[in-house]
Amino acid sequence: MGRALIPRLLAAGHEVVALARPDSEAKLPAGCTAVSGNALDEKTFLDRLGQADAYVHLVGVAHPGPGKERQFREIDQASLEASVRAATGRIRNFVYVSVAQPAPAMRAYQSVRAACERTIRNAGLEANILRPWYVLGPGHRWPYVLIPFYKLFELIPATRDGATRLGLVTLPQMIAALAWAVENPAEGIRVIDVPMIRRITNRSVTVAARNGAS
After folding, report:
1. Which residue in 131, 141, 210, 136 sits closest to 173, CA to CA?
2. Which of 130, 151, 164, 206 is deepest in the core (most CB within 10 A)?
3. pLDDT for 97-125, tens place per residue?
4. 13, 21 in Cβ contact below 8 A?
């Protein structure tokens, strides 16, 4: 998502500083300032935060699966904790991509992301927390076949809430929501769930929506 978000922010006139692993700086989109460092160790990038208004955390294990709980804790959670330590007292708008909750699957992944949300809250950060379920994009297109079933379940009162909360969003929708979150700091914690991600894309969202919700 980072490589798609950076051009969007640059086009909107933002200055972007992006963290990359050593020797991977060339993979970043042109126009941003590359910082070489370790996402698990804030000391490697802390002095490069400068006067940033927003901090976007997008570090996570690729292709999450049920058997990756250790990786979720060693990468997803550890990098979030490092980012929170770096942002506390310095950043007025922390943006984090979590996951829809509750959900019937991927319990280890949900558990780690919920723990990360608690870390953000406990640090007293002002934060936008996005909660998608599954993001449709390159390499992640097979769930398109499920869209008709989602539409059906959204019409049935007994399944409407789950189908909406665990709805599919596209990569462009996520990028639009992330860019919106960067430009609209929360007062406290703002949860941006699937319906709100979709409304942001349709430009019908209000800043107050779900402000402070858990």
Report:
1. 136
2. 130
3. 999 988 888 899 999 999 999 999 999 99
4. no
The DSSP H or E segment spanning 55 is strand 54-57
Q: Which residues pair with 20 in a beta bridge?
A: 36
CB 131 within 8 A of CB 193: yes
Tell me the per-residue pLDDT of 148-162, one tens digit each, with 9 for 90 and over. 655 666 778 777 777
pLDDT digits (tens, 9 = 90+) for 72-102: 999 999 999 999 999 999 999 999 999 998 8
Name the packing angle between helices 157-165 and 147-155 (round to 10°): 130
**C-beta separation of 107 from 74 below 8 A:** no
Cα separation of 174 and 176, whole Å? Answer: 5
Residues counted in the chain: 214
Place of tokens 């406290």: 188
E-state strands within 58-201? 93-97, 127-131, 134-136, 168-170, 189-193
